[in-house]
Backbone:
DNA sequence: TTCTCATTTGGCAAATTAACCAAATAAAAA
DNA sequence: TTTTTATTTGGTTAATTTGCCAAATGAGAA
């Protein structure tokens, strides 16, 4: 069995890969509030315009965001809303893990 | 603003990165049914034992799975259960996207 | 039409990840 | 104790991803 031969597993992996970059996650976080112009990302991120554009393309191709051109500007919006719930859950787990590490350290100290 | 400096965003990205590999997604799918011995993965996957072991380590370090040693064997189990809901949602989106592509093609043909 | 502004695309070097083989560990069986 | 079995670790090479620069596109303004 090689999971790379399974189309559904492969496509699902692509979606996760698209999300798994700090800049792209930050973009998703911002889009949770509503559509945002690319120009706003360019203003707020310390990265080349071209880099930001490529991150947006990755999200678009994975079906996570969509965009709309209005005049000279392009506005992106979040298409896959269920992602927000999952991010909350992941962050819950991250916090739990940190707390349990802390408890282990405290046990050693006592 | 550089999202790479944000600890929570970074840790969240690591979790997504850990999931975003076909073999690791397949492992997660299998673990949905309950704990599984590494030996079963070794039997069912066309990959070197060391490769499989490294995939399991990635999942463990991301806090997605946990393991227990019993005798000579090691059993892995799913720790972050909310992942299953999100995988379902992602697959729903993948199917929707395929359907809408199909509709676009059909419109062209008519 | 020409100019300017917003964004994307192409190309390349640097960084990261994956997969294999060989060797190491660790528990149980002989 | 030695051997066998299950799994992990180290190291190396190949493949993939990232990020920057420069150039291209495309829409509105002049």
Residues:
């Amino acid at each position: 069995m090689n999971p790379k031969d399974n189309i559904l597993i492969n496509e699902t992996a692509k979606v996760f890969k698209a999300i798994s970059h700090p800049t792209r996650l930050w973009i998703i976080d911002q889009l949770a509030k509503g559509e945002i112009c690319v120009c706003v990302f360019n203003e707020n991120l310390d990265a080349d315009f071209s880099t930001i554009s490529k991150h947006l393309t990755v999200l678009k191709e994975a079906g996570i965001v969509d965009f709309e051109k209005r005049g000279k500007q392009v506005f992106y919006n979040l298409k896959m809303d269920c992602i927000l719930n999952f991010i909350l859950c992941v962050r819950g787990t991250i916090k739990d893990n940190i707390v349990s590490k802390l408890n282990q350290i405290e046990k050693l100290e006592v």
